[in-house]
Automatic annotation (TrEMBL):
Pfam families: Bac_luciferase
Native source organism of the sequence: Paractinoplanes tereljensis
Family matches, as InterPro entries: Bact_Lucif_Oxidored (IPR050766), Lucif-like_OxRdatse_MSMEG_4141 (IPR019922), Luciferase-like_dom (IPR011251), Luciferase-like_sf (IPR036661)
Protein name, as recorded: LLM class F420-dependent oxidoreductase
Ranges where the Luciferase-like domain occurs: 17-128, 137-259
NCBIfam families associated with the record: F420_MSMEG_4141
Taxonomy, superkingdom: Bacteria
Annotated GO CC locations: cytosol
Length: 287
């Protein structure tokens, strides 16, 4: 396989209570040749300091939140964090923004209304701070948000999608915008246990309308969403098997137009242990 931009999406980096362990894992990924580390910014009012800790502890690897919720972190705070990171580590921090989900936003009393309009207003506020569009990327699924990613950001960071969505996203973005989908994987060649691990992940996302509505556009139905996902849906979204088989699944996204694939290794929901052996094995076949 030709060399690609291969990055990492892993909840460990925010979930770990040990900053030194997070930085050590980041250093190893940098040495292996991964291009960027993505992880959630959570749902606090500030961009977590963990992003800066990893930037300070590494030399070359990029860092990006996937994503900062526009309902939780203010445009001024997000812009200030991004500018400070840019001054300290030029070109290495990319601000990932997303509209999150109604169930997560309304849980703290905020009304989840008109998320597209909210994103436009947020981008307007970022523009007012002087933050360049090239310093941000949007979590985009539907056509309107993909167009916004093209027109007002560096590109798109789709999440929980099949390769067919990557092809649609590339067509919407055009050739010059960054397309960096997240793709979860399972390094396990046994179909029963691999799919069981995958369903621990898919079951939560298939309860969120943002994702199921997006999948319906590609022909998936309620039958596919039941009980954690049909085998066909699980196999389409979660490459599993040997490192070589997983690499073949990731290749579908590159062929569909991805510039960079952010690999999330599923390890049974454990957010405190970094799956270093899996990323070493994948580096051997991908980088």
């Amino acid at each position: 396989m030709a060399q690609r931009l291969v990055s990492v999406w892993q909840p460990f980096f925010l979930g770990s209570e040990n900053p030194k362990a997070a930085v050590a894992a980041a250093v190893e990924l940098e040495e292996l040749g991964y291009s960027r580390i993505w992880f959630s910014a959570g749902f606090g009012q500030d961009v977590p300091q963990r992003f800066r800790e990893i930037l300070d502890g590494t030399e070359r690897i990029g860092v990006a939140p996937g994503i900062v919720s526009i309902w939780h972190s203010s445009p001024a705070e997000a812009a200030a964090f991004t500018e400070n990171a840019q001054q300290a580590h030029p070109g290495r921090f990319l601000l990932g923004l997303g509209t999150s989900h109604a169930v997560l936003v309304e849980g703290d009393g905020t009304a989840y209304r008109k998320p597209y309009t909210k994103m436009v207003e947020y981008l307007d506020a970022l523009d007012a701070t002087g933050l360049a569009p090239e310093r941000r990327i949007l979590a985009a699924l539907g056509p309107r948000m993909l167009e916004l990613s093209r027109d007002r950001a560096a590109g798109a960071h789709p999440y929980f999608i099949p390769a067919e969505h990557t092809a649609e996203a590339r067509a919407a973005l055009g050739p010059d915008r960054l397309l960096a989908p997240e793709v979860a994987v399972v390094l396990d060649a046994d179909p029963a246990t691999a799919r069981a691990t995958a369903r621990q992940y898919t079951s939560g996302y298939l309860s969120l309308p943002n994702y199921t509505n997006n999948l319906r556009r590609f022909g998936w139905t309620d039958d596919d969403f039941a009980t954690g996902g049909s085998d066909r849906l699980v196999d389409a979204i979660i490459p599993w098997g040997t490192p070589e088989q997983v690499a073949a699944g990731l290749e579908k996204h590159y062929r569909a137009g991805a510039d960079e694939v952010a690999i999330q290794v599923l390890n049974g929901g454990d957010k405190t242990t970094f799956p270093s052996e899996a990323f070493r094995a994948l580096a051997e076949v991908l980088i």
